[in-house]
Structures are given as structure tokens and as C-alpha cells.
């Protein structure tokens, strides 16, 4: 067995042990990054986005200089899928933007109240395709670019480098998709004015989206599935409304992932502190709560100890504006307070474009001791 194969098995076992709440040799570390890798390697973002298999090689070259990580969240940049997922115009470097500018999402919220009936009558997949064709002509070609590479080869490249392709499938909560399409302010009003209709629309969306997710899981057989959520965070609605419109959808998505044999990576941005107690009802040892710095990860660890692994929480701003000593000490405190068992060290959300490589190295060294 080659060195990288041994390293891969070590990383798989370490991550599995962390998620299943076993005794760890050390805290695992996972990186979530995309444009940072290109900037680190001096590759213009427009070039980085041209070929997603090549972009994954850029990731590997960058990681080889940063230190030993156990797993990676984004195998390639996922920006090409954002237009379809968020019903938004995505501005790309080299297309709408200068060749090395960070991509942008221009939210337009094209959905009208009348569109709810289209979804109820013809399904969400039909509605989504029609809206994208009419309002976002780049969205479907961009999505095709994202799904067209040889994903088996991309996954194998990480495995051969000894790195666990942690979450090769990225999914989102139906509520968040509806909020993007309708607009957060409009949807919030609709929740009060026509709650039964919104509930029915979300049920249709959930059925269609979970069927698509199941197809992806059957094809890729991922270690974990990224379940992204932000707009359905409980800070945006009352507990009663969150329990009705958000929690059931999240539970269904998590259960599908777990039943399919994968772990559920709850990549939840914004403040989810009010939701922590609910997570005790999620499958034990099968999920990872991955928060940014808005959620109280210390409370999460206290409440979920022995039930769910927590992951985070290095602030993106610290990786950009801080220095290696600050990052190292912050990470060591996280490991001491929250780990080593049942904890994975990671950045809160994603490594920003302009993070300092020496800060990423310090973060990794805090976990590996190297």
C-alpha cells in the first residue's frame, strides 16, 4: 500500500471517528475554499473557471503547499451552479467582470404570487426550467458546465493525493430556494398571508428536489452530502413558523442523506443558535453541524455532546486580517475547548479570496502539530 493510500485511509478513519463521536488521535481539519486556491497559485479567476477538472488540480497544488488536511469540501468551484440554485444572475470573471475579480450574485427575485400555482400544477422542475430560460439565459449552460466534468476522475485525484473528498455533492434547503426566487421580504409576507399555499408549494419543491438529490447520491456515493442553509435560519422567523416551514424540510433532507449511507454536513450560515436543541432529534453520530461565527458553537458542543459532531469556526476575517500567531492560538483554543473528540476544525463557511496563505498554514498546524 502506497504512502498516499495509507494517508487516505488514516484521514477517512479519523473523520469517521470524529463524526461517530469516537476517541480521536487528533482533531481533524477540513478546508472549504475555491477562489482562494486560484489566488494562492497566481491563476486568474477567469482561467480558474474555464475547466473544472483543471481547477481541482489547482486546489491540489495549493494544498500541497499549505499542509496536511484530512478532507476538502469543495472539489471544484461551485459558482456555475449558483444561478440555477438561487434564481439569480451570476456575474463571472472574464464574462461580466474583469478576469481576476471575485464572482458576484445579482439577486433579482423573479417569482410572482401567481407562480405558486404553476409549481402546484406542473411541478417545481418545470417551473425552474421555464424561469431560468426566460430570465437567466446563462444559468442552464453554467449548470451544465458544473455537472459535465468527469467527477469520478476528480474524486480519484483527491483520493490519490490522500485527501478525503468530504462533500462532493452540494444541496440546498427548498425554503432557501423559494426565498431566493420570491425574495426574502416577499416570502415573509406570504408566510403570513397564505401559509397553507406556501406549505403546499414547499411540499412539491421538496419532493422534486429530493428526488434529484437521491439520483446524485446513487451516482456519486459520497462520504458526506453538503446541506447548505442560510435564509431559513431561525433568526429570520418565529419559532412557531420555523417549526412549520423550515424544520420539516431540513429533517426530510437529512434523513434521505443518512438513509442513503452518507453523512449529513449541515453547512449552516447565519445564526442557528435557537435551533441547537432541535438537533438532538437528528440521527445520532450521522451529522456534522458546520457553522460560521454567528452560531454559538460552544453552546452547540455543550448541548450536542455525545450526539452530534460540531465543525468550525475559524472566522474568515481572521484568515484575511489576522496574523499566523492569532490564528494558531484561536484554533488551539477551539481544539482545547471543543475537541479533540466530536470536533472538526474548519473555517467558518469558506476561506475568502484574499486570505493569507500563512494564516491557513497556521490553522492547519494547530490541528496537525506540524
Keywords:
alpha/beta, three-stranded parallel β-sheet, 370 residues, six-stranded parallel β-sheet, globular
Question: In words, what does this structure look like?
Answer:
- The chain is an alpha/beta fold.
- The protein has helices at residues 3-19, 35-40, 45-48, 52-66, 82-86, 115-122, 124-135, 139-147, 151-160, 174-182, 184-193, 195-220, 239-245, 247-259, 297-304, 316-321, 324-338, 357-368; strands at residues 30-31, 71-72, 88-91, 104-107, 164-165, 169-172, 224-229, 263-268, 287-291, 309-314, 343-347.
- Strands 6-7-8-9-10-11 form a six-stranded parallel β-sheet. It has a three-stranded parallel β-sheet with strand order 1-2-5. A two-stranded antiparallel sheet has the order 3-4.
- β9 (287-291), α15 and β10 (309-314) form a beta-alpha-beta unit.
- α6 (115-122) packs across α7.
- The chain is globular, with a radius of gyration of 20 Å.
- The two termini are 24 Å apart.
Short synopsis of the structure:
By secondary structure, the protein is of the alpha/beta class.
Q: Low-confidence segments, ≥5 residues, pLDDT <50?
A: none
Regarding quaternary structure, what we see is single chain
In terms of DSSP E residues, the strand content is 5-15%
The count of β-strands is: 11
Main sheet: which strands, in order across? 6-7-8-9-10-11
Which descriptor suits the 3D outline?
A: globular
Spell the H/E element sequence.
HEHHHEHEEHHHHEEHHHEHHEEHEHHEH
Per DSSP, the total helix count is 18
Helix content: 40-55%
Q: What is the mean pLDDT?
A: 96
Main β-sheet description? 6 strands, parallel
Structural class computed from helices and strand pairing: alpha/beta
Rg calculated over all Cα atoms: 20 Å
| Through-space gap between termini | 24 Å
